[in-house]
Design a protein that fits this description.
The chain is of the alpha+beta class and 368 residues long. The protein has seven helices and eleven strands. The strands form three sheets. Strands 3, 6, 7, 8, 9, 10 and 11 form a seven-stranded mixed sheet that branches. A two-stranded parallel sheet has the order 1-2. A hairpin with a 5-residue loop joins strand 6 and strand 7. The longest helix has 13 residues.
C-alpha cells in the first residue's frame, strides 16, 4: 500500500466513525486546506498533466463522503493557518501592525493632546509641571511622562543604556517595573515604552483588560491611539488611528540561508491618522544611548524613544511584529519612521500608496 492509499484509508475510517454506536449523536466535519501547487513537495504532486492539482484532489475523489470543501490558501480565506512546508522552512505572518503618532493621542476626556517631544506628557501639562515640552527627558534621566506617572529611579542604574532597544533606559525600566532584556516584558505584543507612555499596564496583558468598560480591550485602545479609560465610540472618527489590513495569501521564497519559506501577503492602508502642530526637538536635547557599555550610539532609525525633529511635524512610527506559524514565539520587530507635516490646527492624514517591507528596519529578533 502506498502513502496515498494509507491516507485515504485513514480518512475514510475517521469519516465512518459517525456510524459507530459509541459516536452516536456526533457529527464529524472535515476541511482541506489546499496549498499553492508551486509549494507542494514533488513526492506529493498530482501525477496527471494538470499540475495545479495536488494530493487533496486525489484524496477527495476517493473518500466515502466527497462533499468535503477544499480551500486554496492563495484565495486569502484559509480555514486554518497553512502548515509548515517541511524541513527547516517557515511561514511568516504579521502578528501585529501599529501606526503610532508619537506626538498626538486622545486622553481620557476625549481630547486630542499635543506632545511635541513624544515623551508621553502633553505640552500644556509639561509647562504646568515645570518641564520643557521640547526636551523628552527634562531631568536628563527619565522621559517626562514616566517621571510624572511612575517617578524616576536615578541611582544604581545607567541612563545611557538600552539593552533591549525598547526605548527605555535602565533607570526607566527599573522605574516602570519592566525587564531590560525584553522589548515586550509582559508578552502582550506592545513594546514596554508605549505601555508606559500610553497609560497601559507594563506588567499585565493588555489584550485581556477592558478598562473603559466598552467592548474594546486596552490593546485595541492603543491601536486607535486612545486612552484606555476613554470609550472608543465616544471619540470623533478623525481623532482615531484607522489602520486597515487584509490578508492576500502566501508568497513562496527563500530566506538568507536559502531555506524555503512562505510569506503571508497583505494589503495595508493607513486610512486616518490625527495630526496637530508641534514644537521642534533639538538634537542637543536627546540623550545619547547605547545597547551596552563600550558600544556605539544606537542609530536613530531603530530608536523607539524620542529623537530630534523639526517644528510642525508629527513623527509617525509604523511598527511591525512578525512571527512564524510554526513557532509563534519566533518573533521579529520592524520599524519605519515617517515625519508628516501637520496643519495649523488639528487635522488628519491618510498614507498615499502602499507599504514596502524593504523600507522597514529590523530592531529585534531573527531576520525573516
Amino acid at each position: 500500500m502506498n502513502q496515498l492509499d494509507e491516507v485515504i484509508v485513514s480518512l475514510n475510517n475517521i469519516l465512518k466513525l459517525e456510524q459507530d454506536p459509541d459516536f452516536l449523536g456526533f457529527r464529524i466535519s472535515m476541511k482541506f486546506a489546499k496549498m499553492n501547487w508551486l509549494a507542494v513537495p514533488s513526492e506529493d504532486t498530482n501525477k496527471s498533466l494538470d499540475k495545479t492539482k495536488n494530493i487533496f484532489d486525489e484524496v477527495q475523489s476517493s473518500l466515502v463522503r466527497r462533499q468535503i470543501p477544499i480551500y486554496n490558501i492563495t484565495d486569502g480565506t484559509p480555514p486554518f493557518p497553512v502548515v509548515n512546508l517541511g524541513g527547516d522552512s517557515s511561514t511568516y505572518v504579521i502578528e501585529n501592525f501599529y501606526a503610532i503618532n508619537t506626538n498626538v493621542y486622545v486622553n481620557k476626556f476625549g481630547n486630542l493632546i499635543i506632545d511635541s517631544d513624544g515623551d508621553g506628557l502633553g505640552d500644556e501639562e509639561e509647562v504646568a509641571q515645570g518641564m520643557d515640552p521640547s526636551i523628552p527627558r527634562t531631568n536628563g534621566i527619565c522621559l517626562d511622562g514616566i517621571a510624572v506617572n511612575f517617578g524616576c529611579q536615578k541611582l544604581g542604574c545607567r541612563p545611557d543604556i538600552d539593552m533591549d532597544l525598547d526605548g527605555l533606559n535602565e533607570c526607566e525600566e527599573i522605574t516602570v517595573g519592566t525587564r531590560d532584556i525584553l522589548l515586550d516584558s509582559d508578552a502582550d505584543h506592545i513594546p514596554d515604552l508605549f505601555e508606559a507612555l500610553r497609560f497601559l499596564k507594563p506588567g499585565d496583558d493588555d489584550r485581556e483588560s477592558k478598562s473603559s468598560g466598552d467592548s474594546f480591550t486596552d490593546h485595541d485602545h492603543f491601536r486607535y491611539g486612545i486612552h484606555p479609560l476613554r470609550q472608543v465610540a465616544s471619540v470623533l472618527d478623525r481623532f482615531k488611528v484607522d489602520l486597515f489590513s487584509r490578508f492576500m495569501g502566501y508568497e513562496l521564497g527563500s530566506d538568507q540561508s536559502g531555506a524555503q519559506q512562505a510569506v503571508a501577503k497583505y494589503v495595508v492602508e493607513l486610512r486616518n491618522m490625527p495630526l496637530a502642530p508641534t514644537q521642534a526637538v533639538a538634537s542637543s536635547s536627546i540623550l545619547v544611548m547605547k545597547s551596552q557599555s563600550g558600544s556605539g550610539p544606537i542609530k536613530d532609525d531603530v530608536r523607539l524613544d524620542p529623537i530630534a525633529k523639526e517644528a510642525h511635524f508629527n513623527r509617525v512610527y509604523f511598527l511591525l511584529e512578525m512571527a512564524t506559524l510554526e513557532n509563534r514565539q519566533k518573533i521579529s520587530w520592524h520599524l519605519l519612521k515617517m515625519d508628516v507635516p501637520a496643519p495649523e490646527g488639528a487635522g488628519s492624514y491618510a498614507l498615499p500608496g502602499s507599504f514596502s517591507f524593504d523600507k522597514f528596519v529590523q530592531i529585534q529578533g531573527e531576520p525573516p
